[in-house]
Predict the structure.
Amino acid sequence: PPALTQALEVTLLYHRHNLTDELLAEPFAVRQPTIPRAINTVEKTLEKVLTPLNKKFIQKVPQARARCRSSRRFASAHRRFTPAAEPAASLTF
C-alpha cells in the first residue's frame, strides 16, 4: 500500500538526514503530528520482525567463529584483512 511505503520512506529520511517532523510533513502532504506516528509504527514493526532474526544470528556467530578459528586459513585471512595501524594525521594550519 502507498501509505506503508510512504511511512517507510519518512522513517528512512528521518534517520538518514535527521530531518524535523515539520520538514518531512510538507512533501508527503500530511500534518506534522502524523510523522512521529508513522515513524513509531515502522520502528515497532521492524523491531518485531528483526528481533527473532537477530537472536538466531547471535546464536550462530560463536559456532561460526569456532569453526573458522579451527581452520588454518583463519590466521592468514585475519592477518591479510586486518588493517595496519596508521599514524595519526598531523594537523597543520
In short: The radius of gyration is 22 Å. The chain has a mean pLDDT of 79. The helical segments are 2-17, 21-25, 34-70, 72-81.
